[in-house]
Specification:
This protein is an alpha/beta fold. It is 38% helix and 16% strand. The chain folds into two domains: 169 residues, Rossmann fold; 66 residues, Alpha-Beta Plaits, CATH 3.30.70.20. The structure holds flavin mononucleotide.
Length: 304
């Protein structure tokens, strides 16, 4: 089996998840190619693949425009098996509507969306999760992905529930539509800047340029937060969203210091439900594996 996983990741969370999928598929002897959508040089022949996957971060209950444009640019297919994988900072069911528009574009082109998965990963905007929470989220995704991969490889379908009027709600919240154009141009660099040019060199849409020593933010911002998140001096001000800025990579390894969770109450119930559901899935899979191994042992003894 051959799989092509295409993804966009602003600050690395989705990339981590997609890489884990690639790793697990490879363990099952599936050949995997990875395509970073921002590279904008798609030359793959989809006839060579049995399945394609599309991964993205949820942006205000929507898929980022770079993903929708990519889907629009894909060639028509006849029933190509397709999986959708997304990450978001909170596990609200409302995030599931992010794939509605993407699914419509793909389905119209003949792609058959058979599986859809969501993983909670730490926020890159709004507020900073603790490293402890980031560790917990990543460990959970890491443990659930092999189960989801097995489901895909066994041909079982999985779809995420969508809320009533999901299309309309997603349309209302398409922040990137105005936020990128209007707010993106209002980004500023403060005096802490050390001119490392990391932002210029890593912006996925090449939206940051330097003219006469001054930073210029164009109209192609897609609000991925990569520039401000990875700025080593937190020197980029993100316009109207400055209060929501999150700066600096998370430590996904088991942290020794347990910081106080300042936002303990925020979406508390949905985080509890998310981790409970994932843990249940993990323990069910473990029990099934143990039963299968036991059964195989019995069969071996009988044969002998
Ligand atoms: C502009 C923007 C909007 C976002 N909107 C949501 C949202 O509606 N719901 C959510 O749970 N997380 C939201 N997030 C958080 C990201 O989806 C989350 O941190 C994701 O894992 C980031 O993935 P990445 O590192 O691959 O970009 C938003 C992030 C950005 C930058």
């Amino acid at each position: 089996m051959k799989v092509l996983l295409c993804y966009f990741s602003g600050t690395g969370n989705t990339r981590k998840v997609i890489n884990r999928f690639a790793e697990v598929f490879a363990e099952h002897e599936v050949s995997v190619d990875l395509y970073k959508i921002e590279e904008n040089n798609f030359t793959y022949n989809l006839d060579d693949y049995d399945m394609i996957g599309i991964g993205y971060p949820v942006h205000a209950f929507n898929a980022p425009s770079i993903i929708l444009n990519f889907a629009k640019s894909l060639p028509e297919q006849k029933d190509k098996r397709t999986i959708i994988i997304n990450t978001s900072g909170e596990p609200l069911k409302l995030n599931n509507i992010s794939s509605i528009k993407l699914s419509k574009i793909l389905t119209k082109k003949g792609y058959n969306i058979t599986n859809e998965y969501h993983y909670c990963m730490p926020y890159n905007i709004i507020f900073r999760h603790t490293d402890n929470m980031a560790y917990k989220m990543w460990k959970t995704a890491n443990d659930v992905i092999p189960i989801d991969c097995k489901e895909i490889l066994n041909g079982k379908q999985a779809h995420l529930d969508k809320v009533f009027m999901g299309s309309f709600i997603a349309w209302l919240f398409r922040i990137e539509f105005w936020g990128g154009r209007f707010n993106g141009k209002r980004y500023k660099v403060n005096e802490n800047c050390i001119h490392c040019n990391k932002c210029v060199n890593t912006c996925p849409t090449h939206n940051i340029t330097i003219k006469d020593g001054k930073f210029h933010f164009g109209k192609n911002c897609i609000m991925c937060m990569r520039c401000s998140f990875y700025c080593p001096k937190a020197a980029i001000k993100i316009g109207l969203f400055e209060r929501w800025k999150v700066n600096g990579a998370y430590n996904f390894n088991n942290p020794n210091d347990y910081e106080d969770e300042v936002h303990k109450k925020y979406c508390q119930k949905s985080y509890i439900r998310y981790f409970e559901e994932c843990n249940q899935k993990i323990s069910q899979a473990k029990t099934m594996l143990e039963e299968t191994e036991e059964q195989e042992e019995i069969e071996d003894v009988v044969k002998a």
